Amino acid sequence: MQNQPQPVTPEAFSRNAVEAALKIGLLFVLLSWCFHIAKPFINPLAWGVIIAVALYPLHLRMTELLGEREKLSATLITGLLLLVILGPCGFLADIIGENVRELAGKLQQNQLTIPEPPEKVATWPLIGKPIFNFWHLAATNFGEAVKTFAPQLREASKWLLASGAAAIMALLQLLVSVIICGLLLVNGASGHQLALAIGHRIAGHKGEELTELSIATIRGVARGVLGVALIQALLAGIGFFMAGVPAAGLLTVVCLFLAVVQLPTAILLLPSIIYVFSSHETLPATVFMVWMLGVGAIDNVLKPILMGRGLDLPMAVVFVGAIGGMIFSGIIGLFVGAVVLALGYKLFLSWLKQTSIA
Questions:
Q1: How does it sit in the membrane (predicted)?
Q2: Which domain holds residue 90?
């Protein structure tokens, strides 16, 4: 004869409920504590994972070429990344510091002079006359020109200070991310197994497929972002050098930076077009304008193609996920948004198949 289940008394129920609540509360406190401790490292860790996933195929090739010396390959890749980041930053800092010192010296000695604008600037449609008037005022009475735009200059200075502080923090985070990337590359095989185990735990038999999809999506977005940025910077550099724009090399580096962080390159290209129109004949200036406008718009064509290549997904899903993710959570959202939308799309298709079979 089977034992009948004993009824739970109110006292036992209350005791079990209190014990469960205490356990859940302690678990929540522990998780919250862990989150706040790890919070400063979440962004660098996420970037380190993204960079490591994107560069892992290169790491495997270099490891093979170096005689299966995995640590040496990871060290070389990490050193190259640090050089790529710190080299242009040091170059820019040196140039900016020199220009600031020169400007401060001229201001102190009252030697700052601005050349008169060319007459043809005034003939430009719509914007020509205002630019000519302000340029002329700055050339003849710099102090009055500054007073005219004093409120805007104060706001601009606050924005520049805030942007400079944010840029320094972003650079430090990026350096930490590169170091994390190097550590992850050394342990790439075990990291991949861990990702597969997590995927299997969350999604069962579809875990491996979704994990591989996430990896492929990150690499596709990296191709779309970095590949297009390099192409844009190369084409813009050709235009700068051919037109004889001052500091063409520096402008090329700035263009690469803007393209990588997904800022519109037009904020650099449009002023260069205005400069070329003010200093060159109409025909070469028009050719330069057409070239630069094409450079600024080329990412709209290449980015969807490079992002979706090699993925068993519609290009629209990856592209919408990347752009929507960037709008939602900044540049890291390019990768996170694309991965999340790709996973959601695959899970939705799986649910549709199961529904139709049932």
A1: Multi-pass membrane protein
A2: 41-184
